Amino acid sequence: MKVAIIGVGKMGQRHLENWLQISNIDVVGIVGRDLDKLKRLAETYNTTSYLDIRSLLEDQKVEIVDICLPTFLHYEAMKEVIGTDEKVSIVCEKPLCLNEDEAKAILQLSKEKDIQILVGHTLRFDPEYAFLRQQIKQGVVGEVGVVRLSRKTSFPGRWFRDNDKSGGILLDLGIHDLDWLLWTFGDVERVLARHIKQKDDREFDYALIILRMKNGVIVHLELSWGESSLKSSFEIAGKEGLLVGNSDSKEPIQIATKQPNQSSDYLPKELVTESAIYKQLSHFKDCIVNGASPIISIEEAVKAVELAQATIFSARNGVPVYLAEEEVQE
């Protein structure tokens, strides 16, 4: 299958390297604006470089376009690909779009043209978080009451500084865990968020989100752009025990239950083999080639954007947002 990568930043290069590890994939083109970087990558990976999507699509007959652009460019890029005469499947980095309106518009366009769009919410492919969800669904700790999640990393800089381009910490970073929560526990009933942003000698972002799921689970989600490196953690409290883990531990998931004679268990090490991006792209290829059912649908990707936008509205206005309403206020 012929694949083209749109965007050659850090994520675009990761996708490029992982596509090349997948059998029967030929990366025939890359699109970017930095001429020096394009030339270097094209020579390194034996592919062809282009300065815009139109030139690529006029020159190459591709079957998959992988969009790894900044968030605010997702909508226009997907519109351009969908608008071509050729039927091209789309892989798009998370989030699907910058806001709910754009996401819903892309959903509608994809249905009208019967275009498959697969969105890269990597926690669904992360072995640790996939295993964690499996334990919850299997009732290992019984009925879940309270969930604590934390995701912290360094301030990304560049276009992320502009909330009108990235959606800020609540969309760009928070959507990882928000999507995982929707996937694991179902719909959200109410969201309340607080957000502080400091800019002095160094930039810093912090947010706290409290969610009440429709099934009664209470979630505390902590987000930070203030660490030196990525750190994540979770604690799932159920009636029968706890699921606890953090990215600093060599044995990430610990299961503690009150069942007699049952010792703590951990994420099997054999699960941690391939990268989440490799698993994700391999799965997307299987969906496109063999018609496999996608782990994430475009409708679910839209819902994640809607939830992230609700947290932004709540933080900006200091009020809870009830997701039972049809639309989140602008």
Question: Could you please describe the fold and organization of this structure?
Answer:
The protein is an alpha/beta fold. It has helices at residues 10-19, 35-45, 53-59, 74-82, 100-113, 127-137, 163-166, 168-172, 174-185, 276-290, 298-317; strands at 2-6, 26-31, 48-50, 64-67, 89-93, 117-120, 144-153, 188-199, 203-213, 218-225, 231-238, 241-246, 253-257, 265-266, 321-322. Strands 14-13-12-11-7-10-9-8-15 form a nine-stranded mixed sheet. It has a six-stranded parallel sheet with strand order 3-2-1-4-5-6, sandwiched between helices. α2 (35-45) links the parallel β2 (26-31) and β3. The termini are far apart. Mean pLDDT is 91; it is low at 263-271 and 326-330.
Set down the secondary structure blueprint.
Elements (H helix, E strand, L loop, with lengths): L1 E5 L3 H10 L6 E6 L3 H11 L2 E3 L2 H7 L4 E4 L6 H9 L6 E5 L6 H14 L3 E4 L6 H11 L6 E10 L9 H4 L1 H5 L1 H12 L2 E12 L3 E11 L4 E8 L5 E8 L2 E6 L6 E5 L7 E2 L9 H15 L7 H20 L3 E2 L8
Parallel strand pairs: 1-2, 1-4, 2-3, 4-5, 5-6, 7-10
Antiparallel strand pairs: 7-11, 8-9, 8-15, 9-10, 11-12, 12-13, 13-14
Number of DSSP helical runs = 11
Quote the beta fraction: 25-35%
Radius of gyration from CA coordinates: 20 Å
Fraction in helix: 25-40%
Task: Kindly report the average pLDDT value.
Answer: 91
Question: In this structure, how is the largest beta sheet organized?
Answer: 9 strands, mixed
Strand order of the largest sheet: 14-13-12-11-7-10-9-8-15
Listing every helix as H and every strand as E from the N terminus to the C terminus, the arrangement reads EHEHEHEHEHEHEHHHEEEEEEEHHE
The shape, in one word, is globular
Structural class based on helices, strands and sheet pairing: alpha/beta
**Total beta-strand segments:** 15
Unreliable residue stretches: 263-271, 326-330
End-to-end separation in angstroms reads 41 Å
